[in-house]
Amino acid sequence: MIRFGNKDFARYPFLKEALAYVTRNDFRLEDLDNPDYRHLIRKAEKKIQNFVFDGKIEYFIDYEKTHDTIVQEEVIVFLISLLIIRSISIEPVTKKYALNESMRFEKYLIADLNNVNQNDKTVRDILYKIFNELFGTEILLERNIYNFFKIRIDDYLDHTIAYQEREWNLINRTLDKGFVYLDGTEIVRLFRNELNLLIIDRIKKMNPERIPSTIASISNSFKLQWEKLYPSIRITNMHSITPPCIDHIYELIKKGENLPHPARVLLATFLIYTNKSFDEMLNLFKRLPDYNEQITRYQLEHLAGKRGLSKRYFVPSCEKVKLNNLCFETKICQGITNPSQLVNRKKYETL
Amino acid sequence: MNGQTIPPIDTSDNNSKNHDLTSKSDENMKENGNGSTRLWLENMFKKYYFKSNSNIETDSFFSEREFGFKLFDGKIRRHLTFRDHKELFANIMRYVPSDIYCSSARYQNPTANMEDKGWKGSDLIFDIDGKDLNLACAKVHNLTHCKQCNGFTNGILSKCSICESSLVEMIDLPCKKCISALKVEVNKLVTILLDDFGIKKDTLYIYFSGNNGFHIKVVDDVFFNSSSQKRRAYIQYLQGKDFIIDNLGFKINKINNEVTILPNKTLFNSGWRARILHELGLKTRNHKLDERSFNKIIHFNNTHETTLYHYISEKISNFAVRIDPSVTMDVHRIFRLSGTINSKSGLIKTVCNNIQTFDPFVDACVVGDSITKVNSKVSLKLSLNNRRFEIKVGINRVPEFVAVYLVLKHLGDYIDA
Ligand code: SF4
Ligand SMILES: [Zn+2]
Ligand SMILES: [Zn+2]
C-alpha cells in the first residue's frame, strides 16, 4: 500500500487514497450548506464556469498550505464539482466538463511521468496505481534509461488509437520482448479516453440523499445560463428533408458528444450547401465540447472555399459517408449517391 | 452435416485460393481418371494412416476443435468433432479423406454453425506460401496445365500456349531453391516473433505445409485471445507496412532528399528502428543517435548510388516477412492437420524440429515404395526420398511415393497392374 501524507494526492482526487483524506474526517456531501465550505464551493463554481462556459482550462492548486489541507480541499472541490454537474444534469454539460477536467489531470500526469526518474518513489507509485487499479493496465518503468515506460503489446492494442492514427500503429511503436515502449506524454495520450470515461462515471455515481440547497441554487443558475446560450436545436428547412446521416450528427451534438473529424466535414459541407449563414453554423459547432471559435471559423471558411486558394468542398458522397460509419440509411435514401440530393428531391416533389 | 455458412478451408497451398473447392475436386477426379485411380489413391492413403497414425497431431483440447474432411469425391464435411484420437482415426479409416483439417480455434460447441459455435480463442497462425514469393526459379520449373486441351507448358502462363484457352491452372513443383527461400522467410518471422513480440521459443511450432509452404503456429494464452483486429496489427508490423521514417530519429524530404536530424525525440532503440539503424551503420548512445552518425546520414546521398529514402525502403522490404494476411486474421479457419497427407502433392504436413536441416522431399515423404506404373504426360526430373528419378512421357515404373506425387500433381495417370 502507498503511504499517504503526500501533497501529490491533491492532483489526483479521484484515487480512493485521496478520498480517504476526507472520509476519515467524516465529510459528508449533505453538509455542504455549512459556511465552512463556502470558499471551496466558490472554487468549484469558478472551475465549472471556466471549463464549461468560458472554454478555459484554468485551475490552480494552492501548494502553500499544509499537505493534509491541500489534499482535503482538492478532494472536496472535486466532489463538489461532480455534484454540481450531476445536478445540472444536461448531457452536453457533463461531457464538456468531463473533457476539460480530464485534460487537467492529463497535464499533471504528463508532468509527473516525465519527472519520474527523480527517484521520487511516491509519485511513481501513485502513477502506477492510477494505471493499474483504475485502468487495469500494468505500466512498467524501464529503469536507468531516460523516461521510458513499457506496456504489454496486448494491452497497448486495447486502445483504439493504435488503429486510428498511423503514428500510433504498432509498426510505428518500438517493440521489445513483448512490450511497447512509450514516453510519459504518450502513455497519458494512450489513456485519454479512459480518463474521460472515469470522470463521467464519477459524475453519474453522485447520488446523495439530498442535494444541499447551496449546490442546488448554483446548478440551477448554470442550467439557465446554458439554456440561454444554447436554445434547443431547430434546424429545419420547410422545403426539404434532412438526410438521416445529418440527423444522426444533430443527435450526437444534442447529447454533447464530441464529433470525429469526418462528421464535422460532412455537417459543415452540408450546412454550406444548404446556404446556412456562418452564425447559424457556429451556433451548432459551439456545442461541441472541444469548441474553439477561431479554429472552427477557419475550418468553415476553408471548406466554403473562402480562404486563400482553397476550393469549395462539396458534400461527401454516400459511399464516403458509409466508409466513415456515418451513414444511417433509411427508405428515403433510395437511389441517391450524395446526401445533398435529398435536399433537392423534396423541393421538386413539393412543387 | 454441412452447415449453412462455410468459412474457407485453408487453401493456402492451393493455386486458386478462391475457387469453390467442391467443383475443383470434381475436376480433379475427372483428371485423375477412372475409379481405379481413386481406389488406388485411397489405398495408398489408408496404408499411410494405418502405419503412421501416431504422426497425426492432437492436443489436449482435441474435443473443442472443429475438424473438416475433404473426400475423394470432392465433398467437404465441416463442423466435425471427435472425442479422442481413436475416434478420429476410426473416421479417417472409414472415409479415407483426401485432406484433413482442424480449426486453430477452440469452441464451446464445435459442431454448431459458425454463429453458434461459441468461440473461445484461436492459436496464432502464420502462412508462408511459395507463390507469394514470386521466385525466379518458380517461373521456370512450374508448369501451366490447360483444362481445355489438357496440354502442359513450362512456366507460369495466363493462357495456354497450345490452344490459347485461359482455362489454365498452375502446377507448382517446388525445387530446393524454393524451399530455401521459404525457410529464409520462416527465419525472418521467427526472429521478429521472439525478439519483438517476446514469444517464447517453446510455444512456437513450425510446419511444412505438405506442398509449397510453411505454417507457423503460436500456442500462447495472450495471443490465443487476440481479436482479428489485433492480429491485423501484428501483420502490419511483420510486413513493415506504413513505417514512418521519422522513427529513426531523422526526417527525409521526399522532394529534394534533404535530411533533417530530429535530436529532441528520444526513442527506445529496438525493433524496426534498431534493425534499420544497424543496417545503416548508425550508432546510438543512450538511445539517441550518436553525433558522429549525423554526418553520415546527412551526406548519405553523396556517398551512395541510391538515395537514403530508397535505401531505407529497400531495407524495410528485406526485413518484411512475406505472409498471407488473411490466414492470420481469420480466426475461424480450419487448417491442414499436422501428420496428414496433402492431396496436392502426396507429401505430409510435418512439424519441423530443426528448420535448418529439414528437407521436405525426404522428411515429409513417406508413402510406400513398391513399384507402380504411371503414364506420365510430361517428362521431368524428381528428387524424392533421397533418390533421383527421371520421368519420361509415357509409361514409367516408379516407387509408390513417386507415383502418388505424379498423379496428385495431375502429371500422370495410374495404370492398373
Ligand atoms: S444513404 Fe447517403 S444520405 Fe442516406 S444516410 Fe447514408 S450517407 Fe446519408
Ligand atoms: Zn490448351
Ligand atoms: Zn524453385
How would you describe this structure to a colleague?
The complex is a heterodimer of chains A (351) and B (417). Chain A has 351 residues and is mainly alpha-helical. Helices cover 54% and strands 4% of the residues of chain A. Chain A contains 16 helices and four strands. In chain A, helix 2 packs across helix 3 and helix 2 (38-53) runs parallel beside helix 10. The radius of gyration of chain A is 24 Å and the shape is globular. Chain A starts with 15 loop residues before the first helix and ends with a helix. Chain B is α+β, with helices and mostly antiparallel strands and 417 residues long. Helices cover 32% and strands 22% of the residues of chain B. Chain B is built from 14 helices and 22 strands. Chain B has a four-stranded antiparallel sheet, with no helix packed on it. Chain B has a four-stranded antiparallel sheet with strand order 6-11-10-17. Chain B has a three-stranded antiparallel sheet with strand order 8-7-9. In chain B, helix 8 crosses helix 11. Classes of the chains: A mainly alpha (351), B alpha+beta (417). Chain A binds chain B through residues 142, 145-146, 148, 152-154, 157, 162-163, 166-167, 169-179, 181, 183, and chain B through 195-199, 222-223, 225-226, 229-230, 233-234, 236-237, 240-244, 247, 266-273, 286-287. Iron/sulfur cluster (SF4) binds next to helix 11 and helix 15 of chain A.
Write a short abstract of this structure.
The complex is a heterodimer of chains A (351) and B (417). Chain A is mainly alpha-helical.
